[in-house]
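subagent[fold] <- orchestrator: predict structure for attached chain, return tokens only, no commentary.
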Amino acid sequence: MGDKSISTSSTSQVADVVVSDGAKSSIDSPYPFFLYPSDSPGMLLVNSVFDAKNKVGFIDGFIAQPKISCDSFKAWNRCNDMKISWLLNSFSKEIAESILYTKTARDIWTELEERFGQSNGPQLYHLQKEINELSQGNLDIVGYYIKLKRFWDELDSLDVVQHCTCDCICGGKVNTHKSHQDVRLIQFLMGLNEAYSGPRSSLLMLSPLP
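subagent[fold] -> orchestrator:
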């Protein structure tokens, strides 16, 4: 069949959408303006693991509203309306009615964040307490590390510090990162069972720490 053959899996990932003046553009599923044939305003997204269908940018503001004169405005507006419908169908009736006339999905999210958002303090306290109290116990080393790393990753996700992205010639960022890793190595070693006291002592004698 040659180039004329198109697999079923390929065709299911591509959709032709009108972006302006009736002109068609092939937009595949990773594109934020793509809507699946199964997408509908009445979809419920919270019965299973949340799947934003590549539309998180409409909530966090990464995908900004284009100017009305832009070719992509109609596609953006259609996806924004769909996202609003998904959000409204995920809320209780009282909350949905209070934000019914909000114009964008981003505005809805911002308003709810201001209304119901909580400080990260309690979460940070709880996570750090879990880390400090965690020990290997009956876990093998891999299982213990995976459990500890899950806490570390969650702790990192709550980090609100604005990290420097500038080019560094003094080595400050490298030293800071190494210090951060040393703290986590110590946390890991502290929770190991006494059966590993020998290897633990050997590691702690190394300079710099691995």
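orchestrator: received. Logging for downstream: The chain has two domains: 47-117, 120-205. Residues 120-205 form one domain.
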